[in-house]
Amino acid sequence: MTGLLIFKIVVLSIGVLNSGLLIVKGDKGKIKNYFLGWSLLSYSVFFLVFILWYEADLILAYPHLLRSSSPLMFMAGPFFYFFVRNTLDRQETFKKSDWLHFIPALIHSVDLLPIYLMSSEEKLLLAQRILAHPYQLDVLASGFIDSFWVNSLRLLQVTTYFTVGIWLLVKNKKLHYGPTWIKNWLAVAVVLIGGINLGYFGFRVTFFVGFWNGVDLSSLQIYFSYLILFCVGVLSLYIHVNPERVFAESSKEDKDLTEDHNKNLKRNGTPSQDAISNGEKVIDEEFCFEPNEKICSELVHLFNSEEIYREKGLLVTDISKRLGVSVRELPHYFRYLFDSDFKNYVNEKRVDLAKERIEEGYLDQYTLEALGDYCGFSSRTTFFNAFKKKYGKSPGEFWKAFQEIGK
Predict the structure, then answer these.
(1) What is the pLDDT of residue 256?
(2) What is the per-residue burial (b if ≥16 Cβ within 10 Å, else e) of 370-387?
(3) What would the DSSP string read from start to end of 278-311?
């Protein structure tokens, strides 16, 4: 093996290992990395197998595995979309309909049955032909469906899922590419996954352009393969160098919500979720308050998933109507769940969101007034006072201090 070939194998192998790390620790932070791990795993295994089999010639030793990794590229796009969606929704699980996204991968597996059902001798002969022209793999070892249509659908699928993911992030103002964007794990992950997609897109398009015109463009394809390798390598390096950003801890409320939507937030001096489930009562000076498990879960969901605190002019009556709880009873839920009153908790969530956006580079593109408006504050003064009360600095001072740290 050449030094370059060994380097490619090492980089992609590390990519596979880091994919596992993202999957295992996927629910530990505010960015839901679980499905990003599966997306990166799909890419890394697909390209690693190509390198091992068709550049290191291992397919001659294992011809029965010919084309077995091909359906993986139909799975990378959906996994990236799940990553974006679940990060925005703050959840980790599949939805029932999510399995429909993998129908193209299943169809492609059926499409390759003629290859899978070949005898070992036939596969070995085919593998020898492919090794002479490895970049013509899809043409030499196609299934029922013409390779042009398979690859066109694959490129369309990857591009569509990535575009929809970007649109969702932009729509929810989660992407901010200013001077400090490199500190934002979500922005870094999107850029590098985009680079992998661009490399794959260029690799496939270049092949078919050359194939149709009878020109060998494999030298150009190599550069696109280097782009893929570079993005996988940088993504892996970032995970190891900046684990505190990749696996940044969520707030206590977020952790409890994502662990179990129906679990109550526990605090000293308050009863547990089991106490609610068992019908135990919490006595206060005004009346006998009996927390309702469903209402507790819905209230946490309103703040952590729907981010209702971002609504301007939000009132206790707005929350009580949404939950079907009396205005008199609702403050007890806030004290029970959050150890706070309505006004202070709303402001706390807003300033926490503002701090998070500042650290993601929001102010590199938008004004302080826009940030306050985004977080739900009705006036600049209220925003500044609430922020300074919690963090000891105005939003502007906090931003300047944050920029100084990054220099």
Answers:
(1) 44
(2) ebbbbbbbeeeeebbebb
(3) TT--EE-SSSEE---HHHHHHHHHHHHTS-GGGS
pLDDT at 95: 80
Name all contacts of 353-356 with Cβ < 8 Å and 24+ positions apart: 353/307, 353/309, 353/310, 354/383, 354/387, 354/395, 355/387, 355/391, 355/398, 356/30
Report the pLDDT value the prediction gives residue 388, as an integer from 0 to 100: 93
Q: Indicate the DSSP class of residue 175.
A: -
CA-based Rg of the chain, rounded to a whole angstrom?
Answer: 26
State the Cα–Cα distance between residues 204 and 135, nearest whole angstrom: 9
Distinct helix (H) and strand (E) counts, the chain: 20, 2
What 3-state class would DSSP assign to 163? helix
CA distances from 154 to 160, 201, 366 (A): 10, 9, 37
Residues 195, 189: Cα–Cα separation, whole Å: 10
pLDDT for the residue 277: 38
pLDDT tens digit string along 302-312? 998 888 999 98
The rounded distance, in Å, linking the Cα atoms of 188 and 175 is 10
The token duo for 110 is 């059926």
Q: Which residues, given as ranges, of the chain have pLDDT below 50?
A: 250-287
Provide the whole-model pTM.
0.65
The pLDDT of residue 107 is 96
Instruction: Supply the pLDDT for residue 230.
Output: 96
Q: Which residues contact 57 (CB under 8 A, 6 or more apart)?
A: 131
**Distant-in-sequence, close-in-space partners of 163: CB < 8 Å, separation ≥ 6:** none
Separation CA 15–CA 2 (nearest Å): 20
